[in-house]
Amino acid sequence: MFDGDTDRAARLVGTPRFGGLLIVADHASNRVPDDIDLGIDAGLMREHIAYDIGVAAVAERMARKDGIAAFLGNVSRLVCDTNRHADDPAAIPERSDGRTIPGNVGIDREARLSRFHAPWHEALDRMLAEHPPMLTLILHSFTPQLASDPDSSRPWQCGLLYDRDARGARLAQPLLEADGLHVGDQLPYSGKDYNAVIARHFENEGRPYLYLEIRQDLIADAPGHDEWATRLSRICNEVALSLT
Known about the structure:
The structure is a single chain. The protein has one domain: Aminopeptidase (3-Layer(aba) Sandwich). The protein has 5 helices and 9 strands; from the N terminus they run E-E-H-E-E-E-H-E-E-H-E-H-E-H. 30% of the residues lie in helices and 17% in strands. It has a 7-stranded mixed sheet. Helix 1 links the parallel strand 2 and strand 3. Helix 1 packs across helix 5 and helix 3 crosses helix 5. With 244 residues, the protein is of the alpha/beta class. Pfam families: FGase. This is Putative N-formylglutamate amidohydrolase. It comes from Novosphingobium marinum. One of its GO terms (molecular function) is hydrolase activity.
């Protein structure tokens, strides 16, 4: 299903297992296919508007362990944001953190969504049905400072998100705080608003999940990747066992 084809909406690291841990990182890549021109400076593709900095490396390290697999987005969220509902204009954003994305203006949105959004969600549907995990970690990162809101800061080190089902968040919060972390509840975003993935694949199906955002400067280098991969492997195991 994921053979390295550059048009693929997702890539898989590791082998999904029944009763294992699945990591879902929909904003893991800043890749733009060759036939798409976003019309922005190339330097912006290394910033948070293009992808969730650090999450791919954390997920890949976690997926080195037996029983853990990572389902990773394979195009930039500026190309297609699979954590937005298909009818949300932000699924193919024309602006992001105050930046205009001119290459997304006036395009055939349905064609773009059919190429990336629908296949990504369909592949995740199949994986969850064929290899039901004990727990799914939905992994994101966030910037400490938005360019469009320079007077605000985001001091917490990680945020737990959820909509109706707070089971995973409630179990994980004391474990994260025991590591000395400042944990934001429903910060920096609310899982009630940015909930396309959890609504379709988890809450509506009753599947347990842990939705976590890590401040990107904490996972911007190899030591941070290793630290958080070790931490999350341990915490996810504890959460999963508590849910059984």
